[in-house]
User: Fold this.
Amino acid sequence: MTTTRIGIDLGGTKIEGIVLGAHGTIVARQRIATPRSYDGTIAALTSLVAELDQATSDDAGPVGIGIPGAVQPNGLVKNANSTWLIGKPLIRDLEQALGRPVRATNDANCFAISEAADGAGADADVVFGVILGTGVGGGIVVRGRVLEGPNLVAGEWGHNPLPWMTAAEAPGSACYCGKHGCIETFLSGPGFAAEYLRTTGRQRSSAEIVADAAQGDAEAVAALERYHDRLARGLASVINIVDPDVIVLGGGMSNLPNLSEAVATRLPVYVFSNTVSTRVVKNFHGDSSGVRGAAWLWPAEGLAEPK
Assistant:
């Protein structure tokens, strides 16, 4: 059996690939933009794997991939916010193009696997890994094993409605899933920027809003306060159902200053308990966490090997 394996994080704006060595060391890394078409995505993934092979001067082993959706038992992708993947036989087409086996799971599951194995959730019994990026997703790891569920939607808190919605928030923006008011439309990076534009009439990126807040801009400060409170509401509903030991924040929006602390202080207002022991922490492996988790899909099914 090869001692290396390839992990790929297929994001909405970028694709990252790594070659992971036997003891969790990253041997090679490549990053490319995500094409916004199915055929373009297959071609880009094929080219990326070839580059990773070349970087290691060898066949770098089997491929694990985290996708923004789920692969059904019939092999077709569903629930992808990269909508050009929906209904496509991604794994079959990739295996044919690459001539090697491919395993896939939701990108948030990959993130949770990585952080539960040897990251910010290491040694916790129940870890809820949160993706706050182009979309909003989540993965649940219980005693070293990721939960997917019979519908392959375990952890998909981003497509529940925002809890305790105010009159100003209701009914919420339209979501690509066909509903209104999904958590994703409030807490994703694009959702945060869009809500700021609606509220203030000013078009600013997430990073610019944060920078404005740091300079004392009142509208930007208020936008961050709303974000903190909405994230606390969303995570409180997760705690009320799953009651994890630790919640690990990931994705680009997890880089907001003092986000985990701001959310943790608000949780007692919403959680159905007189005490809240769940820790809310930033990820340990940063942008590499999801792609590492994808690589760990081979050769072990669980999390024993990354320790």
Notes: The CA atoms of residues 175 and 185 lie 6 Å apart. The two ends are 19 Å apart (CA to CA). The first helix runs from residue 38 to 55.
